[in-house]
Amino acid sequence: MTMIQVSDLSLTYPGTRNPAVDGISFEVGQGEIFGFLGPSGAGKSTTQRVLCRLLQHWSGSVTVMDRSLADWGQGYFAHVGVSFELPNHYLQLTARENLKLFANLYPQDVTRSEDLLAVVDLTADADTRVGQFSKGMMQRLSFVRAFQHEPRLVFLDEPTAGLDPVNARRITDHLQTLRADGCTIFLTTHDMHVADLLCDRVAFMVQGRLALIDTPRNLRLAHGRKQVQVEYRTGEGQRQELFDLDGIGGNERFAELLRSEEIETIHTQEATLEDIFIRTTGEQLL
Amino acid sequence: MTSPAISVKDLSFSYGDNLAVDGISFDVAEGEVFGFLGPNGAGKSTTVRLLTGQLTPQAGTAELLGMDIVSERKKAQQEMGISYESTNLYEQLNAVENLNLFARLYKVADFDAMALLERVGLSGREKEHVANYSKGMKQRLMMARALVSRPRLLFLDEPTDGLDPVSTQTIHALIETATREGTAVFLTTHDMVEADKLSDRVAFIHEGRIVALDTPAALKQRFGMRALKAEVRLANGQTELREVALDESGTAQAVHDLFRNEHVLTVHSEEATLEDIFIDITGRGLQG
Amino acid sequence: MIGTLVAKDVKLFFRNRFFATVTGLALVLYLAIYFLLPLQTENSVGVAIHLEDPAASPEFRQRLAEEEDFTLFPSKDEMLAALEDTDDYFVGMSVPAAAAQAVARGESTTLQAFYAPDVPAEAKQVFHELLVFIANAVNPDLLARLAPIEETEFVLGHDLLGQPLSVRDRFLPLLLLAMVMTEVLGLGTLIVREIETGTARALLTGPLRLPTFLAAKIVTGLVLAMGQVVIVVLVTGKIVVSPLLLLTTLFLGSLLIVGMAFFIAAISRNNTSVLAWGTLTLILFLIPALSIMLPGLASGWMELVPSHYFADALHRVLNFQAGWADVARDLSLLAAAGPAALVIGGAVLRRRL
Hints:
The complex is a heterotrimer of chains A (286), B (288) and C (353). By secondary structure, chain A is of the alpha/beta class. Chain A is 31% helix and 28% strand. Chain A has a six-stranded mixed beta sheet with strand order 6-7-8-3-9-10, with helices on both faces. In chain A, strands 2-1-4-5 form a four-stranded antiparallel beta sheet, covered by helices on one side. A three-stranded antiparallel beta sheet of chain A has the order 12-11-13, with helices on one face. Chain A starts with a strand and ends in a 5-residue tail after the last helix. Classes of the chains: A alpha/beta (286), B alpha/beta (288), C mainly alpha (353).
C-alpha cells in the first residue's frame, strides 16, 4: 500500500529564480522508513513542508493516505505526527503538561503518552518544567509529542541529533518497533549512520532534484569496491592487506594469511552512505 | 622529553552535593586525538570547563603543556583553541571580522583570514554577516576561529553535531591536519563513528569517573564477538546470511572455504562498535 | 586590546539596526526639537484685574492697558469668568475701592486673589507676591517705597523669575540626560547579547582577562553615551559656556549611566528584560530632569535619584553659567554615585560571566 505518492512536485519561492523543488517524483509505502537526504538548501525541508501542508503554492500532484493533499482538511493532522529539529515546547509547562496540551488538540483519545515517556526515559522528569530540560531531553520530548496520538505517518527531522548513543538507540529501536506496527516514517537526517541503520530506502536530493533513490544496501554495493580488507596482528603491530573479491577463493596469499596470522578483522569494502552522500552532492559545500 | 599536552591528576569538581567529576586522571600526548565519551550528565562538559579554565577544580590538578590551569590560566588559555557545543560567533559581523577580532586578541602576527577561510570552505561568502550562514557554515567558522592562534591544544565539543557529511568531512580534515602539526585534540562527541574514526585513544566517562580508556581498536576487540558474518548469493539468485566463528580451531579453513565455495557479496567480522561499547560500559540498559 | 574590543562593540552597536536607527533619529530629532522650541522666554503669564475704584490712578490704568499680560476687566464677574473659562490667565484679582485707599494710605489691607484651577502651589505663592506688588502699584507713588518686594525671592525650579529661561534652554538638560540614558539600553543589550550568545565565553577562554573585558565595555559605554551629547552641545553652541566643566559633568553622568547599564545587564536574562528594566530606569531617571522643564513637579524625593545631580549640574552649568564651586556638591555626589554603580554593576555582572 502506498502512503505517500508524489509526482512532478515543484515549488519556487516568491522572489527567487531557481525552483527550491524541481519536479520530483517518489513513493513511500506504508510501514516504510524513507530517508530523505541531501545537503542544506537542497530542497529537503521544502518538500517536507509541502507534505506537512505548511506551504501552498506548489505544483504537481501529491497523494497522502489515498487522498489528494489539497483535499485533506485539518483532519490530516489526526493521522500525522511531526517533529522538526528545533524543539518547540512551552518552557513554563512541565513535560506532561506540554503533552497534554497537544493531546487535547486531537479528536481521538491519546493514550500512548506515558508509554512513550518511558521509552525515551523521561518518566522521572515528566513533572519538571521543560525550561530546565537539556537540549537532548527536549529532543526526546519532541519525539513523544510526535507519536503520542498514534499517527500513521510521521515526519522526523534529525531525531537523534545531540543525543548520546544510549538515548539515540532508544529512539532508533522504537522507530523499528513502530515500523513493524505499520507506521510510516519520513526521515530527514544528516547522520548517515542512522539513515543506513533505519531506512528501507533513501533518496538523495541535490539542487531541488532527486539524484538517487534506492535501498541503502544496493547503494552501498553499487558504489563500493569489490575488495576485502584483512587486518591482522604480527609481532610488530597491526598490518592490513587488500584483496580483490573476485577469485579470492584461489588467492594463495589470502589463504596463507588466514592460516598463519592472527586475523583481527575482515571487511568487504562497500561504500558507506557518507561516501555516497559526498560523491553525489559533490562540492555543494556552501 | 617534552611534557604531555594535557596531564590530569585526580581532578574533581562538584556542584553542591552533586559530584560531577570524581577524581579522574589521564594524559594526552602531543598530536594525539583523545576522544572523551559518555552519556549526558556524565561529567564531560564539566571536565572540558575545568580543562579550559572556565571552572576551578576543587581537587586534583590539570596541567596543559606543563602549565597549571589554575595558577597559569591565562598563559594556558593563550595556547588553546576551542570549538563550543553551540555556536557563539558575532552574528552581526562577517567571517573575516570574526576571525580578525580573535587574531588581534591572541596577538597573532601576520594573520591571513582569507587563507584560513579557504581551508574551511567559506571563501566567497566571507563578507556576509554570520547571521545568514547555515548551521554547517557557522560550525566551520567556529572551527576556523579555534584555529586562528595555531593552538597546540584543541578542545572540540560536538564539532559535527547535526552537520551534513560534506561539512563533517571538512572539519575532520582540519582536525587531521592540526594533529599532524603536533596539536593535541580533546574531542567530546556523541557520534561514535566519528570518535572511532578520529581518536587515537578514547576514554569513557560515567558518573564522573573514567570507566575505560584505550585505543578504539583494542576496545572493539575486547568487547566484540569473535565471529564473521557473510552475505552470499545462492545459485537461484537469492542472498543468504552465513556466520563463521573465529578463534576456534579450523577457523582459517572455514573462512577459506567460505570464499572458495560461495559467491560472497559482503563479509564483516563482528567487532563491537564504539556505540555497542558505550551502551555496554555506561551500564544503562535499554529497557525501561 | 581594549581598543580592538571597543571598535568591535561600536561596530556591533551600529549593525544593530534598532539601535543605529534610534541613535541616529534621536540625535536629529532632539536637535530639531531643540531648535524648534521657542527661543523667547515664556514669561507671559496673563493676569486679569478688576479695579473697583474708578478714581484710582488713571495713569496706572493707562499703563496696565498697554501691558500685554495684564488685562483690566470692567466687572468682577467678567474677570472671574475669563479666569475660569480661558487659558489666558493664571490669576485674577479684584481690588475693592476701600482696599485701594488703604494701600494708598500705607495701611495694611486684605486682597483676594483667584487662581486658575491648574496653578501649582508654588506658583500661587509667587503670584501672591506679584499681586501684592501690583496692588501696591495701584498707587504709583508708592512704587519706590515698595521696592523691597523685588527682593522676595521665590525660586521656582531655578530662578524662574529672576532669570527667565527660554523653553529651549530649560529643555536642554532633559534632552542630554535622555540621550545618555538611551545608552543604558544600548550598552545593556550589547552585554546581554554577548552573554546570551556565548561570545563573552569565547573571548574569556582566550588570553583576554575579565577586567579588560569590563573596561572595554565601560569605554564603549562612554563613547556611545558621550559621543551623542558632545555633538549636541557642539551643534547648539552650548559648549562655549564652560567647556571643561560641561565635559566633566557629562563624563561623570555617563559613568553613572554605564554603571546602571552593567547592573541592568547583570539582572537581565535577555534583550526583552533589558528593555523592560532599562525603560523603568529611564523613566525614573528622567523625572528629575522633567522637573527642571516643568518646575511645578519638583519635590524632595527626587534628590534620592542620582540623575537629579546630573540634571541639576547640567542645568546650572548650561543655563546659569555656574562655576566649579556652584556645582561642586552635584559633581561630588555624581563622582560617588557613578563609580559606585560601576562597581556594584560590575560585581553582579562578573558572577554571570
